[in-house]
């Protein structure tokens, strides 16, 4: 391989494939490699045979759960916000032509020992069990404040400052109860923990607006999901990259990351071939060994996840075919939220009459599976269960000196907003601080979504 590339990318997760497509469109010569035979890397969508090979090698697959090809089980399930940035990237880059989406039927939150639907309409808000009558009035005023805020109109500010005041002060101003703060902060603003309370309120304001505008886009819930599994996303972006000259190589061993004497990236060796490039981007699983004695990644946490096959919808969700359910940390005495993502055959990821629920959280004790109990207890009888514990990694440095830019591991959340943050972060590092900007398309264009 004598060819020289601008960028080599290792791993075909969503983050890596989005970056590959964006860099190819930007005119860069990209080579994309993966050790696996399939797209998606650590976040691939597996058929039944692959699922058993990964979690129960050598064991026979039960005959009562359908055909191999009817399954596309996400190892790291994620839903897209209908108005979120990844959806905008899909539309902007025209990757939507390769994909079709279906709505997630409902968003739920765990509160006071039971689950309740996060209201998607004004009528649902009035009938919601999440709040008593007086709290509903206070919450209504809070949401009207969020919707009506205009930066250039002080009369909409009520004397509050989103950039100077922490979110906790805004909650206090409207007198919201702790349970309401939990549901706003974790089920709508999708914060991972309560540290947002002490940060400027602007961040939470923007997240709530994203949630409400996503609900308004298609109704029912803010989330959409690609038919045939999340593994379709990296493949869609890979196709776009290929149109702009990107080269893909699957099932390729990565034997060595070659650097010069100063530790600066030179190329990647696979077998007796070395391919050279100016820069390297990759998922952290490719950087577990030190390079020239320098550690490039560090473990930030461990994640426990249970993939559960069910023969019924999740109880108390009005027989919804798909659900996003968040159990806020405070509700179960934890430091991290528990996420439940549920899908059905309507999303072309399972045979008829089977349901898939994945429960995940960050490990806080020496009994990880027990930490999933609050989520597992909500599922009813579980037909098959696959437990995995994995380490989450992040890059140690910016990567500019070594010209090695590492992405973050897929986290416990069941939405893609953290992936988008990572795409922006890596793009800035690779392009010397250039901001990633997508040109606006005509209003009205969007992902193809089935009702």
From TrEMBL:
GO molecular function: Rab GDP-dissociation inhibitor activity
Superkingdom, natural source: Eukaryota
Pfam families xrefs: GDI (PF00996)
Example of a GO cellular component annotation carried by this entry: cytoplasm
Residue intervals passing through the bilayer: none
Gene Ontology terms describing biological process: protein transport; small GTPase-mediated signal transduction; vesicle-mediated transport
Entry-linked InterPro entries: FAD/NAD-bd_sf, GDP_dissociation_inhibitor, RabGDI
Family: Belongs to the Rab GDI family.
Protein name: Rab GDP dissociation inhibitor
Species whose genome carries this gene: Pseudomicrostroma glucosiphilum
């Amino acid at each position: 391989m004598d060819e020289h590339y601008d960028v080599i990318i290792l791993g075909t997760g969503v983050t890596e494939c989005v970056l590959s497509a964006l860099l190819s469109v930007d005119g860069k010569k990209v080579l994309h490699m993966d050790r696996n035979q399939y797209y998606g890397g650590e976040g691939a969508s597996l058929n039944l045979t692959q699922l058993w090979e990964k979690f129960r090698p050598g064991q026979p697959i039960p005959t009562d759960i359908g055909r191999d090809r009817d399954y596309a089980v996400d190892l790291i399930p994620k839903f897209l916000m209908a108005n979120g940035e990844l959806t905008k990237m899909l539309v902007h880059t025209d990757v939507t032509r390769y994909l079709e989406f279906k709505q997630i039927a409902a968003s739920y939150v765990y509160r006071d020992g039971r689950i309740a639907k996060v209201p998607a309409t004004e009528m649902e808000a009035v009938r919601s069990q999440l709040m008593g009558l007086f709290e509903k009035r206070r919450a209504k005023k809070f949401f009207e404040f969020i919707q009506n805020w205009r930066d250039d109109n002080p009369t909409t500010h009520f004397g509050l400052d989103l950039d100077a005041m922490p979110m906790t002060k805004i909650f206090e101003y409207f007198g919201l109860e702790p349970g309401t703060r939990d549901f706003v902060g974790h089920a709508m603003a999708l914060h991972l923990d309560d540290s947002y309370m002490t940060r400027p309120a602007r961040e939470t304001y923007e997240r709530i607006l994203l949630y409400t505008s996503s609900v308004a886009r298609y109704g029912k819930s803010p989330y959409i999901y690609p038919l045939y599994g999340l593994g379709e996303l990296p493949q869609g972006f890979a196709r776009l990259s290929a149109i702009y000259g990107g080269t893909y190589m699957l099932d390729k061993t990565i034997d060595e990351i070659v650097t010069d004497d100063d530790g600066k990236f030179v190329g990647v060796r696979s077998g007796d071939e070395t391919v050279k490039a100016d820069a390297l981007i990759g998922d952290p699983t490719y950087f577990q060994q030190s390079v020239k004695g320098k550690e490039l990644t560090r473990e930030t946490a461990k994640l426990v996840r249970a993939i559960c096959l069910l023969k019924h919808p999740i109880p108390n969700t009005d027989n919804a075919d798909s659900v996003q359910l968040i159990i806020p940390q405070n509700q179960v005495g934890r430091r991290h939220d528990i996420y439940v993502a549920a899908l059905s055959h309507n999303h072309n990821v399972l045979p008829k009459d089977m349901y898939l629920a994945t429960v995940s959280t960050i490990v806080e004790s020496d009994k990880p599976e027990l930490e999933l109990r609050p989520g597992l207890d909500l599922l009813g009888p579980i037909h098959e269960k696959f437990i995995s514990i994995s380490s989450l990694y992040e890059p140690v440095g910016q990567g500019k000196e070594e010209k090695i830019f590492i992405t973050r591991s897929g986290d416990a959340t069941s939405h893609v907003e953290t992936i988008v943050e990572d795409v922006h972060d890596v793009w800035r590092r690779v392009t010397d601080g250039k901001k990633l900007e997508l040109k606006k398309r005509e209003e009205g264009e969007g992902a193809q979504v089935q009702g």
